[in-house]
Specification:
The structure is a single chain. By secondary structure, the chain is an alpha/beta fold. 52% of the residues lie in helices and 14% in strands. The protein has 13 helices and 8 strands. An 8-stranded mixed beta sheet has the order 7-5-6-4-1-2-3-8, with helices on both faces. Helix 1 links the parallel strand 1 and strand 2. Helix 6 crosses helix 7 and helix 9 runs antiparallel to helix 11. The protein is elongated and about 90 Å long. The structure holds uridine-5'-diphosphate (UDP) and magnesium ion. Uridine-5'-diphosphate binds next to strand 1 and helix 3. The site of magnesium ion has 5 residues, from loops.
């Protein structure tokens, strides 16, 4: 049976929330009356998550597939691994923590049926996040939209639907440290967004620290826009030309109006300008470092994730090369 819907869920240390996720996800999907599969990717959890996923796979073998990573490769690498296993015509991504209620999946599918190939979502209210994340996300949205032309009202919301075509395109990219909603958006022909309910994290705590969120947003910016890099060459040029003109003008003026030695001392009094320029240079250097870092990761071309094993019902209809080799018993 080929499913119509593939639900992709990255899981990292979610033992506290998985029972409730299972209890709500499957009934919500059953109610859709369409063949579906749930692909869980265990991103190297150190708690009992992996065992719980395997147990769930035994309980619902027809609808459940579990990809076990050999270590922690990050949420977006987990989603990419999930995409590589998608068989459905449409894929829906979801966080495990129930901040995106599974009961809202049908809204994405309704929009998909209307002909949209990328259905983003907007949380109708941010709940359960630290206060600074709400403010930060607003600011980040403005900057991102200006620099990357990617329109996402709510970039933090992972509850999204992608057509199979987009999933295949994402699978073709070899990009390191990417941000799936943005990457997929660049492949979309008819993107749209729907408003979905939003809840507090059902249990456990956020897997992202302030630093990791900062990293994510640098990745988003440098992964999808060259503007910061180019901005610095323009800004640097303007500052350099401007400061030379100002300096020459000031020097001429002081030579004519001040006694010679006073004028000389005034010329050395450039600390403030120097601070400013040094700050700019360091920041510019940092931006260059962001891109160089990406290039470095890209040229290393390491696998973005390593799968320990995949647990799923072996489907006779699926062609596997190994089955074509006659076993020793058959030969005997
Ligand atoms: N996650 C993951 N690998 C990680 C961090 C997070 O697979 O290294 C998963 C996590 O289990 C959850 C989703 O990504 O399903 C979002 O994580 P979280 O809810 O902690 O992020 P937040 O909602 O705080 O942004
Ligand atoms: Mg969350």
């Amino acid at each position: 049976m080929i499913p119509n819907l593939s639900v992709v869920i990255p899981v990292y240390n979610e033992e506290d929330v998985l029972p409730e996720l299972f209890a709500r996800l499957y009934p919500a999907l059953d109610a859709l009356n369409t063949p579906y599969e749930v692909i869980f990717i265990n991103d190297g959890s150190k708690d009992r998550s992996a065992g719980m996923l395997l147990e769930q796979q035994r309980i619902r073998p027809n609808e459940t597939r579990v990809v076990l990573f050999s270590g922690n490769f990050g949420q977006h690498s987990a989603i990419i691994a999930g995409f590589a296993h998608v068989r459905g015509e449409v894929a829906v991504t979801l966080d495990a923590d129930l901040q995106n209620p599974p009961e809202e999946i049908y809204k994405l599918l309704v929009a998909y049926r209307e002909g949209f190939d990328y259905v983003g979502s907007i949380r109708d209210m941010r709940r359960g996040d630290a206060w600074w994340r709400g403010a930060a996300s607003k600011m980040i949205n403005v900057v991102r939209e200006k620099t990357t032309k990617i329109k996402m009202t709510d970039q933090g919301c992972m509850l999204r639907a992608y057509s199979r075509r987009i999933v295949d395109l994402v699978n073709q990219t070899r990009e390191v440290r990417t941000f799936i909603p943005a990457l997929a958006y660049t492949f979309a022909i008819h993107p749209t967004e729907v408003v979905v309910a939003h809840a507090e994290r059902a249990a456990g705590e956020s897997k992202y620290s302030f630093y990791q969120l900062l990293r994510l947003n640098f990745d988003l910016m440098t992964g999808f826009s060259l503007l910061p890099l180019q901005m610095f060459s323009l800004l640097g040029m303007a500052v350099a030309v401007g400061s030379v003109i100002t300096y020459l003008g000031l020097m001429a003026y002081r030579m004519f109006t001040l006694p010679f030695w006073d004028a000389m001392r005034a010329l050395l009094d450039r600390d403030i300008l120097q601070f400013f320029l040094t700050g700019m240079v360091l920041f510019g250097l940092g931006i260059v470092g962001e891109y160089v870092g990406r290039i470095y990761l890209q040229v290393r071309d390491r696998p973005r994730y390593v799968i320990d094993r995949v647990v799923e019902q072996t489907d006779a209809a699926l062609p596997t090369g190994a089955n074509d080799i006659p076993s020793a018993r058959n030969l005997a």
